[in-house]
């Protein structure tokens, strides 16, 4: 019964997704004891591929499955295995017209893992070197993080043919945003959509750091258990962290159904040992991708990860440069117009106060005169804000990315001013330079109608994807993209220079008067 069970936002983090005791049935699995090399567990679908039930294979050797020459090829590799997978093509006695398989082999948790994926032929998919060469060239040449991401999604889509390939970038709170996308023209764009951190729970993130690619070729599959489910040596299901066939969390499968996804493939993008983002590929219908091609996609993910810091540096340097240039121009305007009306210098010529760094709007409040630029709250709201600042924000430069969290009156202006930087001009109280940033959330539209609120897994109640989204939405509504350190620095510098210029102009006027 669901009664009495508590559902919390982090119960997803406790689902033991590394030991599902089951696989996805696009292949079959044999687990060998690493010492005896006997089969200790097999997936319950061996009959489909081999004509032999799992129960009969368990306890025996590989000779039951492989002809002597094929067995010799496999055994030559067994001793060399680690968590890094080895790939081998084999021909098995034809059953159901499937003679050829690729075996993906690794060693982990006391087990030698042999995962068999059926293939049409044994020839390795030719490595398209010219394609890779051109792709790498484009990635190297990209002049910004966004351009770099766009090339990457274009390449992954060209290689794999998924209906949609997106880059999903994590924020500091582990929620994320789709920042690049390549898709079929008839699909709705996801660009700019934000998703909560709970969509990818902690243990899944930890796993995607170890294993660079997660592949779910048919989100509508029925899980196939291992026979027996528990490993005889450990007494529990074996740890499938590195197994490609690892069965998927039922909650995530519900999520994929909600999204209208028939297949997904996800490539980790890693920076400084942390997940920076993921390339997520979706297909409306089930879709198989060969192991070789998945390997190539991993290679692209690793290349991306290796080059990412250089692209971020380009972005930062360029942004910093733009800010400095615009600041100097702004200071010139202010100096020139300072004699008559220094507010004109801030607001009338390009760049204005609003153009120095990225924001939605800006305002100058000077000696009871209020000038607004871009999209801002109403004059009344700004005056209320200033009254609030005078009472609650003594610092020279105050900033927030969620004003409504500090003052409920902020709720009414969240569309223009969830984020605020306020620089007080020293001499008279009530004089401020203000920058505004809008609320950032663009909410997701779920595919299909899944009104179920709770999901039951092994008798435990878990938060459902939709429920998690609703709770997160309430948390992050009223929140703007965070102010970056370069922007806060710029605001401080503008405040100081403006006071400086005003002082000089004042002194000049004084001396002219004398
Ligand atoms: C896994 N969730 C994932 C994965 C992605 C997302 C990419 C990796 C597996 C895959 O490739 O499908 C989420 N996918 C997204 C997001 C986008 C996308 C945000 O394309 C945006 C564009 N999910 C929930 C809740 C839980 C949950 C509430 O919404 C908690 C119970 C769980 N998500 C969950 C789990 C996994 C997962 C357990 C791991 C699946 C696995 O590898 O077995």
From TrEMBL:
Any GO MF annotation of the entry: ATP binding
Signal peptide: none
Catalysed reactions, as listed in the record: ATP + protein L-histidine = ADP + protein N-phospho-L-histidine
Keywords, in A-Z order: ATP-binding, Chromophore, Coiled coil, Kinase, Nucleotide-binding, Photoreceptor protein, Receptor, Sensory transduction, Transferase
Residue stretches making up the Phytochrome chromophore attachment site domain: 144-302
EC annotation from Swiss-Prot or TrEMBL: 2.7.13.3
Tree of life domain: Bacteria
Record family assignment: In the N-terminal section; belongs to the phytochrome family.
Name by which UniProt lists this protein: histidine kinase
Lineage: Bacteria, Pseudomonadati, Bacteroidota, Cytophagia, Cytophagales
